[in-house]
Design goal:
- Helix 7 (243-256) crosses helix 8 (281-297) and helix 9 runs antiparallel to helix 10 (325-337).
- The chain starts with 7 loop residues before the first strand and ends with a helix.
- It folds into three domains: 3-165, 3-Layer(aba) Sandwich (Rossmann fold); 181-298 and 340-360, Argininosuccinate synthetase, chain A, domain 2 (Alpha-Beta Complex); 369-402, no CATH class.
- Helices cover 39% and strands 19% of the residues.
- The model has no long low-confidence stretch (mean pLDDT 93).
- It has twelve helices and 14 strands.
Length: 404
């Protein structure tokens, strides 16, 4: 499609340097009207200044939306019902935010009659895949403009020169400017680039924003009681909270106790390995506690089936297939498994550790102390039955052994 066929484009706009340059570039290269969409999903920074920057470029239609509650309730919490974790370590903090942004991009495009949507993801990363798979799933014929795959502004120097030539404001922050590429939302903050590109180099101590180091965490434990209903945390220490409130609270107390740091090398969908560092205090707590409440409320085979499917589910989210039929099918099964995942988990936070010290469910626990006890079980379990059970399961092993 030639550039002249695009009359209006909706840009996922953070208000930072890159997307500000993209907004101007779209105006100049496509000679089109630009609509900006800025999502507040808990990144911890003011998003309202993005309005002034957009207005300074002559942009008339500006969307700035608080999506924190929707993000936590409809994306993060459903993912944690599955205990999703990618490659054994990554809690998918960036991955799970992209489907929501893609959905709103398409909705705004429909509302404003835009011909296309645009984003600031580079041609090397996963985010371009996630944004675009989501957009195509929700609007199959949408035009997507990915400037990083089109322009020649492929260095920081060229970007700064472009900004200067077009009078695009560049924030001059006081103090030390972070050299890292960072992404933050309610679930995590990530760090990539600079010295982290060498997987042997230890991250600088002052890089971390949300968590204290475990060595500097308090010497006292912090106890919490998390109340679950249908697999979701609905209260902490008896106080009812919304999904976003739960995450904000756990991020704060987890960070204060050194919980949630991770340093990993992951396999990107586009083929390369990438080293990243992450702070995910709430997610680290939620994963540990959710598995604890499931341990007493889920049937054994249901729990094992969930564990078998989880890596596939996590990979779907990591690769950008949130809106795929297979993810939706798996979600329906996962949600059905959570109907009786109700109760309370008691945990302690101590110097980077999340320790489960109790779990109970008044109505849905499958744990029977009368059967599990090492004391006199009063006939509730006949230990002699185990002999036949073992011999039947050993039959094929005995037959094979006789052939040796």
């Amino acid at each position: 499609m030639p550039h002249t066929d695009v009359k209006k484009v909706v840009l996922a706009y953070s208000g930072g340097l890159d997307t500000s340059i993209i907004a101007k570039w779209l105006q100049d290269e496509y000679h089109c009207e630009v609509v900006t969409f800025t999502a507040d999903i808990g990144q911890g920074e003011e998003v309202e200044p993005a309005r002034l920057k957009a207005e300074a470029m002559g942009i008339k239609e500006i969307y700035i939306e608080d999506l924190c509650e929707e993000y936590a309730r409809d994306y993060v919490f459903p993912m944690f019902r599955a205990n999703a974790i990618y490659e054994g370590e990554y809690l998918l903090g960036t991955s799970i935010a992209r489907p929501l942004i893609a959905k709103r991009l398409i909705e705004i495009a429909n509302e404003t009659g835009a011909d296309a949507v645009s984003h600031g993801a580079t041609g090397k990363g996963n985010d371009q895949v996630r944004f675009e798979l989501g957009a195509y799933a929700l609007k199959p014929d949408v035009r997507i403009i990915a400037p990083w795959r089109e322009w020649d502004l492929n260095s920081r120097k060229k970007l700064m020169t472009y900004a200067e030539q077009h009078n695009i404001a560049v924030e001059q922050k006081r103090g030390k400017k972070s050299p890292y590429s960072m992404d933050a939302n309610l679930l995590h903050i990530s760090y990539e680039g600079d010295i982290l590109e060498d997987p042997w180099v230890e991250p600088e101590a002052d890089m971390w924003r949300w968590t204290v180091s475990p060595e500097q965490a308090p010497d006292q434990t912090l106890s919490l009681e998390l109340t679950y209903k249908s697999g979701d945390i609905v209260a902490i220490d008896g106080s009812e909270m919304s999904a976003a409130e739960v995450m904000r609270y756990l991020n704060r107390v987890g960070g204060e106790n050194g919980v949630g740091r991770d340093d990993i090398v992951e396999n990107r969908y586009v083929g390369m390995k990438s080293r990243g560092c992450y702070e995910t205090p709430a997610g680290t707590i939620m994963l540990k506690a959710h598995r604890a409440i499931e341990s007493i409320t889920l049937d054994r085979e249901v729990a094992h089936l969930k564990d078998e499917l989880m890596p596939r589910y996590a990979t779907l989210i990591y690769n950008g297939y949130w809106w795929s039929p297979e993810r939706e099918m798996m979600q329906a099964m996962i949600d059905a498994s959570q109907q009786r995942v109700n109760g309370v988990v008691r945990i302690k936070l101590y110097k980077g550790n999340v320790v489960v010290v109790g779990r109970q469910s008044q109505s849905d626990s499958l744990f029977d102390a009368n059967i599990a006890t090492f004391e006199d079980d009063a006939g509730s379990y006949n230990q002699q039955d185990a002999e036949g059970f073992i011999k039947l399961n050993a039959l094929r092993l005995r037959i094979a052994a006789r052939k040796l």
